[in-house]
Amino acid sequence: MAAQQRKTGLGRGLGALLQQEAVESPKKQTAETPASKTPSSPAGSINFIKVDQISINPFQPRTDFDETALRELSESIEVQGLIQPITVRQVGKNEYQLISGERRLRASKLAGITEIPAYVRTANDQQMLEMALIENIQRENLNAIEIALSFQRMIEECSLKQEELGDRVSKNRSTVTNYLRLLKLPPVIQAAIRDGDLSMGHARALINVGEIEKQLFIFKEIVEKGLSVRKAEQLVREVQQAKDKKQKGKKEAALNFQYQKIEDDLASKFATRVKLNVKSTKGKGAIEIPFNSEDDLSRILELLDW
């Protein structure tokens, strides 16, 4: 089945990688749609391909598909047909491998469709991985952990820097960094984000807490008390302030110990009580050496080589 081709721009990201040509697709495809007579589809074309000739993309980053949403899409396809073609690469005669569009493929199978429109592309494994990841990040409703894992795979397996990754997915570096930092959270918190029990706003508050024990404490408070993002951020500030206060107390205690030792050493040297008057946290102050008589003063001055 042929169709008039026309060019369209998809912007940055997947469109730039695929350089794909969109075509007008029929309003509805059914199980009775006749099979394409073309045994081999040229790269860059669009064809109706039998769903049983398409294997799943092994690089698909998404593993969880909402069954309710899938059924809704399937019912829409039954009525309207598949409006947006999937993208595949040809790996043999009448054999194709999915690059992007697994949700559409699954829904089409549920609808009983035997053939669906597909763009045919030429891509190596790394290009397939990058295209699949970008397609999912930009178009699918991935949870934050799935996005973070996709970012990590693009950095590690596609040898991208964070700036390059940001350009690919049209996100700034700080956004990419925040997603990647989610993967440093304890597994129980990552699972809560993945399952939708913890929002991205809550997660951003937690990643600013350094210690795992404190992250788990705040996470427990959020879940048990149903804290809003604002309340969670306030709790994080309180925990951090308590930490800073404790550290300040330890520092002051350490300084007090050091000052006491200096006083003791000076008292031993001058054989009289010596007092350090520290007037600020910056270490400013004075040394007081009392004397009982002129002779005692002369003795102290001799010790000072006066």
TrEMBL record:
<dbReference type="InterPro" id="IPR036086">
    <property type="entry name" value="ParB/Sulfiredoxin_sf"/>
</dbReference>
<comment type="similarity">
    <text>Belongs to the ParB family.</text>
</comment>
<dbReference type="Pfam" id="PF23552">
    <property type="entry name" value="ParB_C"/>
</dbReference>
<dbReference type="InterPro" id="IPR041468">
    <property type="entry name" value="HTH_ParB/Spo0J"/>
</dbReference>
<feature type="compositionally biased region" description="Polar residues">
    <location>
        <begin position="31"/>
        <end position="44"/>
    </location>
</feature>
<dbReference type="InterPro" id="IPR004437">
    <property type="entry name" value="ParB/RepB/Spo0J"/>
</dbReference>
<keyword id="KW-0238">DNA-binding</keyword>
<dbReference type="InterPro" id="IPR003115">
    <property type="entry name" value="ParB_N"/>
</dbReference>
<feature type="region of interest" description="Disordered">
    <location>
        <begin position="1"/>
        <end position="45"/>
    </location>
</feature>
<protein>
    <submittedName>
        <fullName>ParB/RepB/Spo0J family partition protein</fullName>
    </submittedName>
</protein>
<feature type="domain" description="ParB-like N-terminal">
    <location>
        <begin position="47"/>
        <end position="137"/>
    </location>
</feature>
<dbReference type="Pfam" id="PF02195">
    <property type="entry name" value="ParB_N"/>
</dbReference>
<dbReference type="InterPro" id="IPR050336">
    <property type="entry name" value="Chromosome_partition/occlusion"/>
</dbReference>
<dbReference type="InterPro" id="IPR057240">
    <property type="entry name" value="ParB_dimer_C"/>
</dbReference>
<keyword id="KW-0159">Chromosome partition</keyword>
<dbReference type="Pfam" id="PF17762">
    <property type="entry name" value="HTH_ParB"/>
</dbReference>
